[in-house]
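Fold tokens
===========
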Amino acid sequence: MLETPSAKLIRPATEADLQTIRRIYNEGIDDRIATLDEAPKTIEEIAEWWAAHGDPFAIMVAEGASGEVIGWASLNAYSHRCAYRGVADLSIYVTRDARGRGVGFELLRNLEKQAKKSAFHKIVLFALASNDHGHRLYQKCGYREVGVFREQGVLEGRPVDVLAMEKLLKPFVLFICRHNTGRSQMAEAFLREAMGDAIEVASAGTIAADAPDPGVVAAMAEIDIDITSARPKLITSVMMARADRTITMGCDVDVSHIDDDWGLPDPKGQPLERVREIREMIRLRTKQLADALRNHVFD
């Protein structure tokens, strides 16, 4: 269970939540922006839906400040064919009064973690193309637009388009230091080289900078890793929220959560020989991290 700023608590749903889940879902039906369903769901229909959501098809709910359920999200069967057992379909609904407060983002982030634990490697979703709010949420969470099915369904007697999106559930590692010009850039480059497309990796800083440190660029070039085109980035709350592993490099940074600090010296302004030493420290730590990732140490 996770405390969040936008929802007091994200937790697994229980059977006691079904009436509230039904009410929130029926709000989505009534608003005509979230589903092609037009008839409100009965409690019997919701109970049947619930019965189909045993392991690994998680259902999560978000609680508000007073403990009331203000949103829910579920993993659903995409296909009963065994070839698609690693793919889950997504549903997510937030009560009217709580929309625009980050509840959907928190639900989706937690549901993705449950999906990874259940060995899903991909989530797909199908949304009304006119649902701009939902589209922005999915993009914020890293979903890729696959395409639009033209006139895929009928809503209130009119043909409507349906948007298809997907996300591969790769571990996301975030390296952080003050300026994102040295240690974190090297760590990102080494981990990307070690893991390729198997993970997401990024680096960022808490203070704006223009370019990687020249000594770091030179030291990495010696081992045929070109970071001349890398640009320091400022960390965002979305990066922090999405990261499965947040690693600081040895500097005091003000961020909401740190999983590990590597305690490495700053290469800025150091002689090239010293930068090489720091580079090799980082190379060793990223190799150890890559081994842990391959062995699913922090799934």
